[in-house]
Amino acid sequence: xxxxxxxxxxxxxxxxxxxxxxxxxxxxxxxxxxxxxxxxxxxxxxxxxxxxxxxxxxxxxxxxxxxxxxxxxxxxxxxxxxxxxxxxxxxxxxxxxxxxxxxxxxxxxxxxxxxxxxxxxxxxxxxxxxxxxxxxxxxxxxxxxxxxxxxxxxxxxxxxxxxxxxxxxxx
Length: 171
Known about the structure:
The protein has 171 residues and is an alpha/beta fold. It is built from five helices and ten strands, in the order αβαβαββββαβαβββ.
């Protein structure tokens, strides 16, 4: 699965004297929460960006509950950061404190707006990659107009998940 492939990359960076990967997941639906809970143990820093402030606050308090097991820290013991994305406040969003290696875009295609692409660009550095997990076609054109195509990766996953609440997911 893709999670395993990314965990190998993450472990490889750590074993070569790096600090480990800094990953941001935009979208805290079923797959966003699943991937966050699975890769957190391999990350130096993990940020999950939600659509609502309420979900970000609930996740910050409770962590991610995957099949009854809580996940709230990364490999280094660093807490997972939970932020919310709001289109009306896009210009006031600060870039991340640490450069992001990968941004996993785990939202529905219809959620990819001009404001969201501006938000993504503000989070990226010259070494960041955007990994897109959308179904269908069209998002690659929209994102390719806003972000350099050599920094766009398109992913397919066979993982299935069901979100059971704002902080809980079943795999």
